[in-house]
From TrEMBL:
GO terms for molecular function: nucleotide binding. It comes from the Bacteria. Residues 5-114 form the Gfo/Idh/MocA-like oxidoreductase N-terminal domain. It comes from Donghicola tyrosinivorans. This is D-galactose 1-dehydrogenase.
Length: 308
């Protein structure tokens, strides 16, 4: 047990329970010993209502933040200042600049900072990346639609400033996009549809360019009814590579090529253990940068109010 990294989890909500708890339990080298959550508790662990009380009382070496992005900076900065390694749920924060600040703080303190992008760990993402490494890409279409009432029931923070709205799932597509395309992606235009009683969009269309050569179009929509659609189609001069089901399946010219089970969060924790062991950080803001740019260059239209 002595070589185990003792870990604390902050924010015991939907994703912490469905993915983090089982994935930590299945990962060698790391053991969950404490929780900080204002309202929730986990039996058999040391429970606190805030991270500062936890950091003062527990000898954990690492902290995993599963709270909403608003307020994440203060939690991460506290943990880093206390000399603890930090893993951040996606999106790593409410803005890009605070992540650069955290990177500097972690570097100065000599601790690991890991900005996770769970969708990049989906089954076929690395296969698609190697297939596209030398491809001549003609265009990319992202179709990312789900029913917000099914996937985010009662979550107020997604509608508040910094909550990203439909970009909360949409950023998963952007994290895959920026992993599989060989050329840098930048935003050229965007249209954001914001319910009149909310601060964040319920739907968005984003136009991007891959290296100034290929057009990338993304459609994000939370008003979708029925099974979610999480697809990225990359047209190349030799055929079309489509990632379906959020990167669980790879299709070549309409024929299923490969698929595999979901081990996204197990891979994230294995990587966190590896980064800590090596004394390294892994900080990538690019998916969040694209969302920020969509907000910067995009036009907004008000649409009907949203009620959960
Ligand atoms: P959630 O169900 O709302 O849980 C977040 C937890 O954080 C809450 O249970 C809450 O616990 C705590 N919290 C601390 N400050 C909060 C605040 N100001 N407002 C609301 N809750 C606060 O959210 P989630 O779906 O787990 O998402 C958390 C993060 O994981 C987000 O960044 C999200 O993008 C990411 N994520 C979510 C999913 C998903 O499918 N849901 C998938 C992948 C990633 P206490 O009240 O006990 O403090």
């Amino acid at each position: 047990m002595s070589d185990q990294i003792k870990l604390a989890l902050v924010g015991l909500g939907t994703i912490a329970r469905s993915q983090h708890l089982p994935s930590i339990a299945a990962t060698d080298g790391i053991t969950l010993t404490a929780i900080a959550s204002r309202n929730a508790q986990e039996a058999g662990l040391a429970n606190y209502t805030d991270i500062d009380a936890l950091l003062a009382a527990e000898d954990v070496q690492a902290v995993s933040l599963c709270t909403p992005p608003q307020g994440r900076f203060a939690q991460a900065a506290s943990a880093i200042a206390a000399g603890r390694h930090v893993m951040l749920e996606k999106p790593p924060g409410v803005g890009v600049s605070e992540i650069h600040a955290l990177r500097r703080l972690a570097q100065a303190k000599g601790v690991t900072l890991f900005t996770t992008w769970h969708s990049r760990e989906a089954a076929v993402v690395e296969t698609a990346r190697s297939m596209l490494a030398d491809a001549d890409i003609l265009r990319v279409d992202i179709d990312w639609r789900e029913d917000v009432r099914q996937w985010h029931p009662g979550q107020q923070w997604i509608w508040q400033a910094g909550g990203l709205g439909v970009f909360d799932p949409g950023i998963n597509a952007l994290s895959i996009l920026t992993r599989i395309l060989p050329d840098p992606v930048f935003v050229t235009d965007a249209q954001l549809e914001v319910p009149e009683n909310c601060q964040t969009p319920i739907a968005a269309a984003v136009q991007m360019s891959a290296g100034g050569k290929a057009q990338v179009s993304a459609a994000f929509d939370w008003r979708w009814q029925g099974p979610p659609q999480w697809d990225i189609a990359v047209q190349t001069t030799t055929g079309t590579i489509t990632l379906k089901k959020g990167g669980a399946e790879l299709w070549l010219d309409g024929v299923l090529h490969s698929s595999s089970e979901d081990h996204e969060y197990r891979r994230l924790y294995a990587r966190f253990v590896e980064l800590i062991g090596r004394g390294e950080s892994d900080v990538d803001v690019m998916p969040l940068q694209l969302v920020a740019d969509a907000f910067l260059v995009g036009s907004r239209s008000m649409v009907e109010p949203f009620h959960d």
